[in-house]
Amino acid sequence: xxxxxLSTLLISLCTPLxxxxxxxxxxxxxxxxxxxxxxxxxxxxxxxxxxxxxIETEDSLxxxxxxDTLASNLDLAIVRDEQVIRVIESLxxxxxxxxxNRLTQQVEQIFSSRLFEAIYRSTTPxxxxxxxxxxxxxxxxxxxxxxxxxxxxxxxxxRGKIALTDGQLRELTEIRKDMLRISWELFGKYDVGKSxxxxxxxxxxxxxxxxxxxPALRARQLKRLLQDQxxxxxxxxxxxxxxxxxxxxxGDRGYASTCMDKYGSSYRDIFKKDPLLAMAATAxxxxxxxxxxxxxxxxxxxxxxNCAASDWQYYLLAAVVQGEMGIIxxxxxxxxxNIDNGxxxxxxxxxLASILYxxxxxxxxxxxxxxxxxxxxVKTGDILSMASQCDSPKxxxxxxxxxxxxxLTVAGVEEKCxxxxxxxxxxxxxxxxxxxxxxxxxxxxWTASLPSTALAVLPKGKEDEENRxxxxxxxxxxxxxxxxxxxxxxxPLFTIQTGWELNPPEEGMTRDILIGLGRAFPFxxxxxxxxxxxxxxxxxxxxxxxEPEPEARETIQEEPAKEEQTETEEPELPQEEPLSxxxxxxxxxxxDPLSEDHIT
Length: 600
Description:
By secondary structure, the protein is an alpha+beta fold. Among the domains are: 28-94 and 164-197; 198-287, Serine Threonine Protein Phosphatase 5, Tetratricopeptide repeat (Alpha Horseshoe); 407-553, no CATH class. Helices cover 55% and strands 10% of the residues. It contains 25 helices and 9 strands. The chain has helices at 2-14, 32-57, 60-72, 82-92, 97-122, 129-140, 143-149, 151-157, 166-189, 200-210, 215-228, 236-248, 253-266, 275-287, 293-306, 312-325, 328-340, 345-358, 362-374, 380-387, 393-403, 452-455, 509-520, 550-568, 596-599, and strands spanning 407-411, 417-423, 433-438, 446-450, 467-471, 484-490, 495-502, 527-538, 544-545. Strands 1, 2, 3, 4, 5, 6, 7, 8 and 9 form a 9-stranded antiparallel sheet that branches. The radius of gyration is 37 Å and the shape is elongated. Residues 549-600 are annotated as: Disordered. Keywords: Signal. Residues 1-23 form the signal peptide.
């Protein structure tokens, strides 16, 4: 009985419906002709999308990127229609490969700098660099996407011929006209998939919508576009740009996740590598809960299988995710790939050191820190962020030498300020920095909050030209010259506390003149007192006390005593006693040039 019911069901499914022109449109999913038709018409939509975007922007880089996606990544085993291949050939003849390669390199360099800056601007004492990577990489995506979203920023920094010529635009328009004839020929070849083919006007409207700067407005317009034309449901880029609009505008993250899933379900594997799919998988990584290990691994696999070797940002993101999941060996391999290829060596080294330290790989962590100290390509701030956790003698010695380059002075007569010199490498980041100097826990002391723009223009130091000099606002209440000061530097990557002790002021006419000038001219603030470093600590690390060398220690102890003796006591002069007959003759002076014989 069960076999009879099953056979009846199969016969009913395989029997075509009568009385409808779309009867063959319900062919079973495993029917090859059906799948081929859907893939061909989806690929036609991709071609039309590339043509519409290139004509709309009149940008040679946009054209080159669309051509690379269509020609280099197309799976010829799936799409084999001759008409489609001819269209791609015509498109390639409009691309100047030499010029676009040079422009593409500039785009990649600018993107690398922009992403680096975005990551460190998002880094705060409460937001680690790893969290900033997880939040910024999915939004900026890849160079081609960020270039498309912020073309004016890129073109202002680029050199070369970017705009398409009138001749190229005419050729692209002619190719687009041929698409109508090709679509008509393919409609006669395939019986299904016709409803998925978008018209030229619909594609132009889609290109105009995704160019909208306001992400919230873009998201609303895309939803209306789907309501007006349901065929966009089968066009994967529609779902990608819909999801990105929600993410960029802090919209509905649930709907954004649905859009990225719809991209994967509507995509028909027509490319060997799909850049949009790699970026969609990256966005899904940021939306997937950490406890969903299976889905995160699946997204990681999609990212790596669809990205290029130059997409260092994807490998950086993958390494951070793999570090969270405990896949340390693969995280190390992905970051080492970026370091070997010269992509953001300092950032990747810091991320690798952080992952190894979190995994309790002390030996690997120490090895990475030693290499970072020796490498001129690793920034000082990145080393400082991890140096306090490193117990090797090399790290400790480097840390002491770096901190002892600082200097602190108090300047001013009635309204005093603090001048602090810090090594230039500490502020070689697009970040803000807070400084506070106190002499008592009960007093607020001097404070300064410096944005990245202020840090970028700090003058050179007076004690060390490789330092940068920052000056705090003056206090209205004169604290005098406190014997001890505590200076704290709050940087997004590290926190440094230092203790200072007042050096004995030098008395003299020069000092009096400078103080007089300071009283006469309020804008002039002479140096009132200098301080020497006596202890420091970095992050949650231990307190390191300054122990001068034996010779320096003796000098420090003897000099104040000598000065005190000079100020309070006068040297005793020998008293001449009158000669008497009871006393013997005075001792001979020998060869003394000032003897009485010589004087006589």
